[in-house]
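Try it yourself: sequence plus iron/sulfur cluster, in.
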Amino acid sequence: MSKGVLVDVSRCIGCRSCMVACKTWNDLPAGKSEFTNNWDAPGKVDADNWTVVNYHIVEQDEQIKWRFVKRQCMHCDEPACEAACFTHSFVKTQEGAVIYKPTELNQDYCVGCRYCMIACPFGVPSFQWDKALPFVQKCRFCYDRMKEGMKPACVTACPTGTLKYGERDALLKEAWQRINSNPNYIKRVYGEKEYGGTSWLYISDVPFDEIGLKTKAYGQDVSERSIPSLTWDVLKWTPYIFVGWGAILTALNFYTKRRAEAHHDGEIYEAVNTIEEKKDE
Amino acid sequence: MQKTWSFKLTPFRYVLIGLAGIAVVVALARFIFGLGAVTNLSDEWPWGLWIGFDLLCGIALAGGGFSTAFIVHVLHKEKYLPIARAALLTSLIGYIIALVSLLLDIGRWTNCWRPFFYWGFHSVLFEVFWCISLYTTVQVLEFGDIFFERVKIAPLKKILSKAMLPLTILGIVLPTLHQSSLGSLYIVTIDRLNPLWWSMIIPFFFVWSAFFLGPAMVTIEGTLAARAYNRKPETHIFASLTKVTMWMLIVYFIVKIIDLSYRGVYSMAFNGSFESNMFLVEMIVFILAPIFMYAIPAIRKTQWGVVTASALVVIGVVFNRMNVVFTGMAQSAGGHYFPSIWEWLITLGMWSVLALAYLFVVENFPILVKEDHEQESLSSGESVTTGRSVEA
Ligand code: SF4
Ligand code: SF4
Ligand code: SF4
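Structure, out:
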């Protein structure tokens, strides 16, 4: 019973009600924005803006299309942020939300190393850079509302039905129904398989790569394996290397020792003295 | 035997102390005002100079400790004994620097003890953290063995001497693990780190290069120490160490090529992009060039040849880490990062402390080999001019 949200990019009008709702519900401070020559500000999620709406101009068949994409944490099925954190400060709840324990559950173990920020494939976790003891911040899928059976604040605010909240499985089915019944859609649900699958799913009538949802990186398809499974592939060898390498070294040590003469280490060294000539002790 | 502690202050050392003092002030400011006030880090570039250079390179450069320990104490190649203690010392200081820069870098430093109690063992960082902490402890104990030669506390010295073997083994296994997992840290950057550097076997590249860097680092450091104290550098030892480094470099190069072709990104190295050029420089100048310099006896046998090639190896490993942390990530991270003046000052200060600590210890503890003893073992008859003492 893992929840999800289906985002239908073709329906979004870029009103940003979701942004406002998110800030209001989560008590996030307003920031002074600077004038930018586009409709994108603030452009990227940060510690005080857990969701942003990006705009993209897409040229298709000599037609110019404006598309708006709401971005926030994807709530991965196997989150990189959770596996990366060595104090286990992120957790994927059974309801589907990926939450940050220091602020959400009052379990403040995070040391602020920011490895979660390096690990997240979507660049989501953000840091309170201006604080002396900063927290990591990101969309929490309105976990408090979710537990009460309410929709996330942003979904309630959306006037066009771009955002739909529900069971992830059911949403995935619906996504494919919409895609199959309308030839305009790209034949792909973004989030179905990317990095092991995410709770937030996107469908679009313009190529995903042109609206900031990467399907290719350096000419190759993005990973369908989750990041935790990749690191675990390497990490699982640790105990074997520890024991095996230790045993080899011990054996080598005894084997070579018999051949080499026992040496009195201490005697060949001395402290150097720059001040005066060496005196005999 | 017991001389008084000595530390002569030269103008150069005053500069180092000054730099260290400035760093302490900046560090205080950083703790009070937070990271944003002092650094140029951002959400796009969460890790900067302190992690990328001080921690990653500091630890790699400390690789001399474990590779020398392996050669001297496990393989018992006694002829390398003269450099063993110096290598251990640099390594220990390197790790302490790494731990300090880590403490400076973490945002919630008041929680710095938590990871010992709250375990996220699915995390690569978990392994790195534990191995580095344990290994630093091991090194302190190993160094204790030397410390108690000077500060005579017999029972402690005895206990430590007994524990030396397990400590030595741990002192090789732990760094093997975390040098490699420093590489594994970057496995999560799949699709973001340029494929010329990203690889599932990046842990192998990290630990392998930390190992072959060891002898080169010992060479550089030994030469510098010899200069400073007007001693003869152990050129013959350095020259015979080059064989190890050369073969390891060759293996590194071959595995790199196999890895690139296996992942089908071989051609990316030649597509003319900034990344590809940096990669080629890394491979040609810092891997192939030292291999050839080490391979040609006429170069290898001379003091300048060994030192130049070793310098290339050392700079090459730093260059590689910088490429992983910055060059390879730039395209996907976006935004700009250049360390702020404060970040530089802290880094400078930390490395000044490193230099001061090294100088203090070699002047007060038996670290470097006795001169006359060395004379006997000097097999190659070449006399090395060391010039005047530069009074470091
Ligand atoms: S999108 Fe990033 S922050 Fe969100 S759950 Fe996935 S890895 Fe974690
Ligand atoms: S910054 Fe905090 S939450 Fe993120 S990886 Fe480090 S300890 Fe974990
Ligand atoms: S789910 Fe909640 S926290 Fe996340 S973007 Fe929507 S309103 Fe903000």
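One thing you can check immediately is this: The mean pLDDT of chain B is 83.
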